[in-house]
Amino acid sequence: MRHSRGTARPVPRARARGLLACLLAPLLAASSLVLLPAAPAAAAGEVATEETTVPSGTGPDAVELDTSLFVPDTATADDPAAAVVLAHGFGGSKDSVRSDAEHLADLGYVVLTYSARGFGASTGQIGLDDPRYEVADLSTLIDLLATRDDVLLDAPGDPRVGVSGASYGGALSLLGAAYDQRIDAIAPQITWNSLTTALFPSQGTATGSAATTVAGTPTTTAAGTGVFKRDWAGIFFAAGALNVQGLLGGLTGSAPPTIDPATATQTLTCGAFRPEVCAAYQSAASTGTLSPEVAAVLDRSSPASVIDRIQAPTLLIQGTRDSLFGLGEADANARGIAANGTPVKVVWYDGGHDSTASDSVTADLRDQVAGWFDHFLRGGPDPGTPFLYPQPAGAQNALGGGGGGGGGGGRQRDAGTVTADSYPGLTGDPAQRRVLPVGGGTQPVVTPAGGSPAAYTTIPALGAISAALGGTTIEIPGQFARFDTEPLDEGVDVVGATQVQLTVASTTGTATLFAKLYDVAEDGSQSLPSGLVAPVSLTGLSTDPTAPSTVTVTLPAIDHRFEAGHRVRLVVSSTDQAYALPADAAVYTVGVADPASALSVPQVQGEGEPVAGSSRWFVLLGVVLLLGLLGWLAARVWGRRRERQLSTADADGEDVPLRFEGVTKSYKDGFVAVRDLSFEVRRGQVLGLLGPNGAGKTTSLRMLMGLIRPTAGTISVFGHAARPGAPVLSRLGSFVEGTGLQPHLSGRDNLTLYWAATGRPPEDAHMAEAIEVAGLGSAIDKRVRSYSQGMRQRVAIAQAMLGLPDLLVLDEPTNGLDPPQIHAMREVLQSYARTGRTVIVSSHLLSEIEQTCSHVVVMAKGQKVAQGTVEEIIGTGGAVLVGLADPADTDRAVAVLEGLPGRPAVERTDEGLVVELGDVSRAAAIAALVAAGVGVDQLSPRRRLEDAFLSLVGESS
Description:
Layout (H helix, E strand, L loop, with lengths): L46 E10 L6 E10 L10 E5 L10 H9 L3 E5 L19 H13 L6 E3 L2 E2 L1 E6 L1 H12 L3 E7 L5 H5 L6 E2 L9 E2 L11 H12 L7 H4 L11 H7 L4 H13 L4 H9 L13 E6 L7 H12 L5 E6 L9 H20 L8 E4 L26 E4 L11 E5 L6 E5 L15 H7 L10 E5 L7 E15 L4 E10 L5 E2 L6 E5 L10 E14 L4 E7 L12 E7 L6 E5 L3 E3 L7 H21 L1 H8 L11 E9 L5 E10 L4 E5 L6 H8 L7 E6 L2 E2 L10 E4 L11 H12 L8 H8 L14 H12 L6 E5 L7 H16 L3 E5 L3 H7 L2 E6 L2 E7 H6 L4 E5 L5 H9 L6 E4 L4 E4 L5 H10 L4 E6 L3 H9 L4
Parallel strand pairs: 3-4, 3-7, 7-8, 8-11, 11-12, 29-34, 29-35, 32-33, 33-34
Antiparallel strand pairs: 1-2, 2-4, 5-6, 9-10, 13-14, 14-26, 15-25, 16-24, 17-23, 18-22, 18-24, 18-25, 19-20, 19-21, 19-23, 27-28, 27-30, 30-31, 35-36, 37-39, 37-40, 38-39
Helix pairs in contact: 2-3, 8-9, 13-16, 16-18, 17-18
């Protein structure tokens, strides 16, 4: 049956009831949807997929929508199923949400995905979720579902249906629920409340009392106000403009498009956008201001304008790393929908438009959405409406930013989740707040003509990448005011939007400012949590610096822990490269109204819960102890069998702690990582494993530790086969491929927990010796998330040395250490070997291998190319340096050396004579010089280990 519909309208219903995509295609991730597991449901056996083109709209606005319908075999006319419509993010298509559709279909839902008009294979122009077009298309698709006998109906023409989507698709689900009352539940993610305030924000004021909720939404109340989010708007528009069908045909081999000169400007500059949307963007981009015409376009596509109509139970998922649609957008949606008496649940997660969520968080979000729909569409368990947010963590252990001034400071991925009873302010319980005093006084701030140069904070859509590439924000001297707290006596968790009252005067009566909270470490380095900035557009200001105006600024909502000893720094800048800036120069004076209570920071009390894949320490410890007990019982039961297996050992096993014999590791695709590797390491040696990237070093170490099995050959540790789980591996301590430390535990707790997992008595750990090796002093009792990379490295090495293992294996042990620490580590390893134990070090620092190790194995392309003492490797080929006791003997020495067999080449240098001995031994050369009466002060290899290494493996490797 073919359905078409024009303007979206409310549809009567029998009973009103109460994923992650970015803007650009390269940034699109599957809309994934936290932390309650999906409620049990009858799983589908087989899922059929129907590809259909669905007509929608009338007249010149008619389009063909490219759809995919996923129908589980459990959905039949006799047992119809609830349906879910999945909408994609801006720049995506129905394929962007396919994995989510398959997941929900496997849970027994009939799932409809489609490409929105102007995207993918669907026709039409982009209207930015215009109710007349995109929202009407959604109603058309719901009409289609209502005609199927395998879809459950609430009433004729009214299917049991939920809608979910991220970003562009998230706003569609909100608008759809407002215009079409047949929708029974929605799960919008990382989306907007007001597209106007999202693209023209001004956080000088905020909707909703920040004393009530945790994340006030920026407001723009009149045309001409707000600060244009220039970079994000440009990315947004470019993503739609690139959807011109055939525009790139000439580059792909198909016929180039024919463009009508009369419409060339529209086609080439507006792409797939509707003319009124294109005109709005061009106006904003050229003027940087919000005109009434632009506001009309944006307001029409904003859920804020119809939020009072939404009756469908709503799961709001918003990212903490999102400079496009911040946490305040979800705050406004939550307040507006809850005011209708509609159930609302708010979930924050570690990710957003600036940073893709981890795999485990993505899976949890997907299960959270499934659990929401299971209750409201199928009567499953009630997930409730608690407020979930990531466990706040400090900057130094953040991904995508850190103590070096990163623009993406945040938390360790999958650090855990906190559950509060409800989202503050929705049920009458206001957010809790703490006051932090600052110092700094009143300061002059200059805004340059044209806004250049401008401060740099983060790259839109690439926050984590920009932090990883540079990790540093740039504030222009003279263009900002700075206000610092004293070092914190204890950690402060900021969950939401901080407020501050500023005093501002301007020579022009207006001001454009950018406020942000930095986390300043003890060493003075600073990080900007999630790279978030609060733009503030102020008018009607005092022009008298002695009588400034007082304004309240709401900073972006963040989820961040300021550690004890750190400072909270408020920076108010006149520029930011991501926003449109005033053309005229001006001078502002900026201060805080009441320094003693300047910063009002929100805090939310809740119960900490681990994210999948991470655990709180006491849970992990309990599991470890249980596993230890089970391991002990298994050891007793199988002890005799193990003793028989261990009875066969090499006779020289105690003298040769490690032996590789013909070891090869190949993979199914034919790649050979290690080929016929043979070498042995004797007691008391410090052996360096050298080789370029891809030489097979790490693969060899992983086989040694029993993590992977060799394809051929044998590896013996103290004479016993080093197979996975072999008891002899308990004599081995290792640090390979990352520290593996739990960031929320102290260094001491990490060491204790690690040792508990071995099941061995605590007194055998030699904990004091390990802590002395770490050299952290009192820092050993601080949480690892506060450690620098070097500090974490030292704790990991101490962890490997717990129990004083007879064989110590370290992969790149000096990474993150400064020169004094490297020197100390060198002495530790050498003294450790002098006790009769053996050390193996894999490193790319040839100078450290040369100074630390007694023996070397050189690998290239999976094979051993040399083995021996460092001196032997250095002395293989090349030249020697001869130092003479009396420089007056130089001519006679040259004559003697050149007269040796093979006539060695001799070069005079300031250091002495450089001689290519060839086949002549060093002893023969010295004997010839002494016989000729030439005093020899020294004879040493001319080249370093680096020279030997390059000659052995080839510099091109």
